[in-house]
Amino acid sequence: MSDYVEVLKRDDLQNGEMRGVTVGGNELLLARVDDRYYAASNLCPHLRAKLARGTLTGTIVTCPRHGSQFDLKDGHVVRWTEWSGAKLALSKIFTAPRPLQTYPVKLEGDSVQVKL
């Protein structure tokens, strides 16, 4: 059974900010958007780039390597890559689109906790 673990303090992230952390052997991406906290895998499911090196627009994180985009609310794929045409079709054959793993987050006082 998984438990919630503290990953940071409430004020460690500003609104619109994200960062990568390692907790219990898991590489996590933590983000704060409109005073809500989100946790997901920090590794892009396309080619495993570190998402914390990408950009955050609202709850959409964009991978720095190929422009893949995921919604941190539920991990669904917004865009698999920024490629188009034949290159996009081939990329989907070799690495089928799949969602980003997300994790439940809760606040306990000033502690931000993630269920692993």
What does this protein structure show overall?
The structure is a single chain. The protein is elongated, with a radius of gyration of 15 Å. It has one helix at residues 85-94, and strands spanning 4-9, 17-23, 26-33, 36-41, 55-57, 60-62, 69-71, 77-79, 102-103, 105-108, 111-115. The protein has a single domain, classed as Rieske [2Fe-2S] iron-sulphur domain (Rieske Iron-sulfur Protein), CATH 2.102.10.10. It is mainly beta and 116 residues long. Strand 3 and strand 4 (36-41) form a beta hairpin. It has a four-stranded antiparallel beta sheet, with no helix packed on it. The protein has one helix and eleven strands, in the order E-E-E-E-E-E-E-E-H-E-E-E.
Major sheet: order of its strands? 2-3-4-9
Q: In percent terms, what proportion of residues is strand?
A: 35-45%
Distance between the termini: 9 Å
User: What is the number of E strands?
Assistant: 11
Helix content: under 10%
What's the CATH topology name?
A: Rieske Iron-sulfur Protein
Over all CA atoms, what is the radius of gyration? Answer: 15 Å
Biggest sheet character: 4 strands, antiparallel
- Structural class of the helix and strand makeup? mainly beta
Average pLDDT rating: 91
In the predicted model, the low-confidence regions spanning at least 5 consecutive residues are: none
CATH architecture identity: 3-layer Sandwich
Provide a count of the helices.
1
Q: Write down the CATH class.
A: Mainly Beta
CATH H-level superfamily: Rieske [2Fe-2S] iron-sulphur domain
Helix-strand pattern: EEEEEEEEHEEE
- What's the structural domain tally? 1
